[in-house]
Design a protein that fits this description.
about 30% helix; alpha+beta; globular
């Protein structure tokens, strides 16, 4: 049997892996993507219950109006005319609310509209809101990945990379409610007040303020289009192919050994899986121990617990916006929750109806949950969980 060697072998079929394979295959390289699961896409996956499509990862996207940065990227990947999306409410795509009052605070699409809408709740904070929007725009303009014509020059000395989000918000306003409102959607990026850099918050918020959309029939449309394009370009995609070890010839990776014993050879290897998992597949002597320990020792961000509800027909109207709720007036306490009063916060979204109807088919509710709470079952598999896990889910 003739040994097949690829130009590029990509571990993992998350969005980054598929986009990389798309570009390389389009340029004529012989590319292979391997995925350990039966479904491609990583966080860009869907599943069905009772005929309703539910998103497992990506729930809504920003900066997708024509000419905006995500639209330009999607156009490059030949996605724009092949996926279905729905634009969220212009005057309140996100609504922030707290347990200590019955008001909601709306994030509106458009910079001027964003300021005007929040001024209804904070009439004395015009200068603070204008400063906030100006800084979002400045940071985005300085960040090269949002300016595709600019040369890449990642400036880690910029104040945007040295300032944490809470310090920044406290610097532009003394109004603690406004500080918490502006940070109210931090569940999107597992924000930690003294740790999360301003630029993470700003790039996400700026994107959604420009425009906000949901997918109709789920985000895995992206996965399907990219995978079909890779195959059409001559690439190979192998599902249920888990990498066990990266094998070397002298100091260069020569092939990947799969769990089933198969070896796949390539000239260049690209990993789209967790850095720690990647390093664990490399022989110890091939990686400096200090580097290995540093990467393995990095803390992961908080985990999320998601509840999916399938609705009876005509029971709950479709909401063309997202609801962020915090039981506490301080959104920064959310990661340090007490399990006795869990959840401290949640994000609620209604699923876009597959047909243009007034009522929603399903609801998705997300909240923070520490991985330690489910760690004891990490080696179990779907369909074979023990009774203790099922009891935990019901609770």
């Amino acid at each position: 049997m003739k040994m097949m060697k690829f130009d590029f072998l990509i571990l993992g079929s998350g969005l980054g892996g598929l986009q990389t394979a798309y570009i390389l295959s389009k340029e004529g390289f012989n590319v292979c993507v391997i995925e350990k699961n039966s479904q491609l896409g990583g966080a860009v996956q869907n599943f069905k219950r009772d005929g309703i499509i539910l998103d497992a990862g990506v729930h809504y996207i920003g900066a997708y109006d024509e000419g905006q940065i995500l639209h330009r990227y999607f156009k490059f990947f030949s996605l724009t005319d092949k996926i279905r999306v729905k634009r969220l409410d212009e005057d309140g795509f996100d609504r922030i609310s707290f347990g200590d009052n019955n008001q909601d605070y709306k994030f509106a699409i458009g910079y001027d509209n964003f300021i005007k809408t929040l001024l209804k709740r904070f009439p004395k904070e015009k200068e603070s809101l204008e400063t906030y929007i100006k800084d979002l725009q400045k940071l985005t303009a300085d960040f090269e990945l949002t300016q595709v014509e600019a040369p890449f020059n990642f400036n880690l000395k910029s104040k945007y990379y040295r300032t944490n989000i809470r310090s920044y918000l406290e610097s532009i306003t003394k109004n603690s409610r406004l500080q918490n409102v502006l940070a109210g959607s931090n569940l999107l990026y597992a924000g930690e007040p003294n740790k999360t850099p301003l630029f993470i918050h700003s790039l996400i918020m700026n994107s959604y303020i420009q425009s906000a959309y949901r997918f109709i029939n789920g985000s895995s449309q992206i996965t399907a289009v990219l995978a079909n394009s890779i195959i059409a370009n001559g690439g190979t995609i192998k599902k249920q192919s888990e990498a066990k070890e990266l094998l070397f010839e002298e100091d260069k990776i020569c092939c990947v050994l799969l769990r089933n014993g198969e070896k796949l050879y390539a000239s260049t290897f690209i990993s789209d899986i967790h850095p720690a998992l990647t390093l664990k597949m490399i022989p110890e002597e091939k990686v400096r121990r200090v580097y290995f320990n540093r990467i393995i020792g990095l803390n992961n961000t908080a985990s999320v617990f998601t509840l999916y509800l399938i609705l009876k027909k005509n029971i709950h109207k479709y909401l063309n916006y997202n609801v962020y709720y915090s039981r506490d007036k301080n959104v920064w306490t959310l990661l340090n929750y007490d399990s006795k009063v869990w959840p401290q916060s949640f994000l609620l979204m209604t699923q876009v109806p597959s047909q243009d109807r007034e009522f929603a088919d399903g609801i998705t509710i997300m909240t923070y949950m520490k991985y330690d709470e489910v760690k004891k079952w990490e080696n179990s598999t779907v369909g074979e969980r023990p009774d203790t896990y099922e009891a935990f889910k019901k609770q």
